[in-house]
């Protein structure tokens, strides 16, 4: 079943915006009302679209990202360059696409396990159901997308590096979509902050703020970006489709249409964003990152993309 909900109906329905996604299914048992509430999360955000898509009860909620272009101003592999410094690569997106409002959750992954489409992880996915599913390899994330594609009849996949960046930056040519002081970043994402260091005592630098989270947090508890995406900052890194290419160090040959980079070493796949372990010394650094496609980490998950027919 495909549901498209217009955010304009939220006000008349009387639902207010809130961030705790796990409240949705606890408070509202009706699936249609549940989806309406998810849509209303973005009611006061200048989102890219006024529609939230959900193709089935177990499917991730998606927001439509409009066609457009972005200047990727930090060349892949160049560490710490200011967002408006130096040359840039312009990437154009001729068609809209849909991307997950949130990272795929334990609950959604568990539905795939029950259906026989996904592997059991090395932790109990029936617990902390609204937390992002992590410790997932690139290959496992691909199996999840294959399951969703077969279930819904739509093409689900991982985002390309540039699709992820365009959505995370909300179409703006900067390192991230925000322009705030470091002490305010905890309003936007779950990072390695003063709470984490106080409890975990890893002896790491921290961001000069306190988000109240020690490690992973439920999805949707922090401010969204202007496209209506949550948790592109912090919580969990996210797999992408791209292969590791020798051209990553100077962006030569970078697809300028938003497609993944399929040249180079495809045993290494991209991941983007940051996680709850991201601290002050690395938080504002932008560079391409790659891992072995079989690897899984406690702070690495994924977000789905769905092609728009």
Main features:
six-stranded antiparallel sheet; 12 strands; globular; 17% strand; paralog of FGE (formylglycine-generating enzyme); alpha+beta
What is the radius of gyration? 18 Å
Low-confidence stretches: 4-49, 75-84
Task: Quote the average pLDDT.
Answer: 77
Question: First CA to last CA: what distance?
Answer: 16 Å
CATH topology: the name is paralog of FGE (formylglycine-generating enzyme)
Number of helices: 7
Principal-axis shape: globular
The proportion of residues forming helix, as a percent range, comes to 10-25%
Can you give a write-up of this model?
By secondary structure, the protein is of the alpha+beta class. It has one domain (58-307): paralog of FGE (formylglycine-generating enzyme). The protein has seven helices and twelve strands. The chain has helices at residues 8-13, 21-27, 31-40, 106-114, 138-152, 161-168, 194-200; strands at residues 3-6, 51-54, 62-65, 68-72, 89-93, 97-100, 156-157, 237-244, 265-272, 289-292, 300-301, 305-307. β2 (51-54) and β3 form a beta hairpin. The chain is globular. The model is unreliable at 4-49 and 75-84 (pLDDT under 50).
Question: Quick recap of the structure?
Answer:
Helices cover 20% and strands 17% of the residues. The chain has helices at residues 8-13, 21-27, 31-40, 106-114, 138-152, 161-168, 194-200; strands spanning 3-6, 51-54, 62-65, 68-72, 89-93, 97-100, 156-157, 237-244, 265-272, 289-292, 300-301, 305-307.
Secondary-structure topology with pairs:
Elements: E1 3-6, H1 8-13, H2 21-27, H3 31-40, E2 51-54, E3 62-65, E4 68-72, E5 89-93, E6 97-100, H4 106-114, H5 138-152, E7 156-157, H6 161-168, H7 194-200, E8 237-244, E9 265-272, E10 289-292, E11 300-301, E12 305-307
